[in-house]
Amino acid sequence: MTVRVRYAPSPTGIPHVGNIRTALFNWLLARHHGGVFILRIEDTDRARYDPRAVDAIMESLRWLGLDWDEGPDVGGPYAPYVQSERLPLYQEAAERLLRSGHAYRCYCSPERLEMVRAEQMRQKIPPKYDRHCRLLSEEEARERGEPGAKPVIRFKTPLSGITRFEDAIRGEVEFDNETLDDFVILKSDGYPTYHLAHLVDDHEMRITHVLRGDEWISSAPRHVLMYEAFGWDPPVFAHLPVILGPDKAKLSKRHGATSVLEYRDQGYLPEALFNFLGLLGWSLDDRTVIISREQFIRHFDLSRVVKNPAIFDRDKLDWMNGVYIRELPEERLVDLLTEWLESHLPARVPRPIDREVVRRAAPLVRERIKRLDESVAMMDFFFWDEIHYSREELLGKAYAADPEGAARALTLALESLEQVTDWRHEAIEAPMRALAERLGVKTGALFGLVRVAVTGKSVSPPLFESMAIVGKERCLRRLHAALDLLGRPD
Asked: Which of the residues 253, 370, 457, 472 is marked catalytic?
């Protein structure tokens, strides 16, 4: 059997990381078994349809490297792969259930349904359709409905018994049919609900495994009953564990439930986010955390997916992204940093960004950033001379009570550095260490003073390597500016 799986998002918004985790697990299952990964757009919720969402879905998948074998843009043997282009299939399927006695037309108005719901809530019983039209002939139901009303079609759920199915992750699951309602499968506008549309498409597209979020497990008995009504074999169901924040609350934006593209725009690497999402509910063993794409594909299996909720830990993602940044080949790191600086440095900084400067600075920041967005604040002083800091920031704790001592130290530093002819970091560092010893101050105090003067920051890449890249003339000019701020000593 060829494994065929699908990622079938509803384009009602930009997909967040929870949605994409589902896509990733489907993709991994297909790639592990040499199967087929399908992208299908489930756009039957026309009221919430967002035309921008389809492009965002595809862009998110491409950025993470989740390529699809069949889909709206690449076609395939079961096209079209957009549900709004497949309406006749669903309408015929609904008619088939009507003919077999597994469905019925419901003419109940929204007002009546709301009254029934309100009464059920008043009685503190779970709200669900009261099967009013199921108990009537279609002619009686039509007569009691509003004149000219277009009916919906509801599935005729068994009134008693148990519906069981085997979940690849949770084992045997069962539901009492008395708890289920007669749910709508075709709306009055001719559009199907999710329950009908996805099931018809999964059958038509020969889907073998349905991997979806845990929130759909309560709907699974409905789908099992529909498969039985159609006389079709159901796929393997696998309901993925819910994702929670570190506080064990439902994942929300404050935890990081934002879109994949926002993570891209915040400076995360696709391979890091791939690795992180791949461990939300799955593990290789109890030790390994950094796992390559090839390792994921080789080892991914549903037996390793856990039932318990997965924890979305943003700090762990930051750490993991830092690991991947440190492992980047030099040229790719230079490419990424150059691209990031081009996009995010202020417009007044001349373009194009000097790639050679980036190349020399990259080793200095590689170990110090966890996300690419941190590179701007760490590297901006290499590219412009508008260094801004206050007098208090320049003095720092070491010289806060001794501004005259700071001015004297900067003056002597300038005199020493002016004598340096070979502007390499070793040649810069030696006289600065000698000066600290001569002044009887800690190197950290003197170096901190020079650091703020040259970089505008109290924390920066290694000072002397940075000064070597900035260049002698610019460094001396910045030290003069710092002296002007403090007031030159008498």
From this structure: 253
Both tokens of 147, joined, read: 């004149």
Q: Is the peptide bond before 246 cis (omega within 30 degrees of 0)?
A: no
> For residue 352, is the peptide bond before it cis, meaning its omega torsion is within 30 degrees of 0?
yes
Measured CA to CA, the distance from residue 296 to residue 283 in angstroms comes to: 9
Burial of 108 (0-12, 13-18, 19+ CB in 10 A): buried
- To the query of whether residue 253 is one of the catalytic residues in this protein, the response is yes
**Cβ of 4: how many Cβ atoms within 10 Å?**
22
| 210, 214, 215, 218: CA torsion to nearest 10 | 80
d(CA 365, CA 381): 13
Instruction: Report the relative pairing of strands 209-213 and 184-186 from DSSP bridges.
Output: unpaired
Q: Are strands 243-244 and 310-311 parallel, antiparallel or unpaired?
A: parallel
- Per-residue model confidence as pLDDT tens for the chain (490 residues): 899 999 999 999 888 898 999 999 999 999 999 999 999 999 998 889 998 999 999 999 999 999 999 999 999 999 999 999 999 999 999 999 999 999 999 999 999 999 999 999 999 998 999 999 998 888 887 787 777 789 999 999 999 999 999 999 999 999 999 999 999 999 999 999 999 999 999 999 999 999 999 999 999 999 999 999 999 999 999 999 999 988 888 877 776 668 899 999 999 999 999 999 999 999 999 899 999 999 999 999 999 999 999 999 999 999 999 999 999 999 999 999 999 999 999 998 999 999 999 999 999 999 999 999 999 999 999 998 888 999 999 999 999 999 999 999 999 999 999 999 999 999 999 999 999 999 999 999 999 999 999 999 999 999 999 999 999 999 999 999 999 999 887 6
Q: By C-alpha distance, which of 169, 235, 167, 238 is closest to 207?
A: 235
Cβ atoms of 245 and 311 within 8 Å: the answer is: yes
| Cα–Cα distance list, 141 to 67, 118, 136, 265 (Å) | 49, 22, 6, 55
Distance CA 485, CA 104 (A): 84
CB atoms within 10 A of CB 406: 25
Rounded to an integer, what is the distance from CA 422 to the centroid of its chain?
48
Closest CA to 433 of 445, 419, 418: 445
Q: Name residue 386's amino acid.
A: E
Q: CA 413: distance to chain centroid?
A: 49
Residue among 399, 398, 364, 400 at smallest CA distance from 381: 364
Helix then strand then coil, % of the chain, to nearest 5: 50, 10, 40
Q: Has this prediction a pTM greater than 0.85?
A: yes
Measure the CA–CA gap between 368 and 65, rounded to whole angstroms: 27
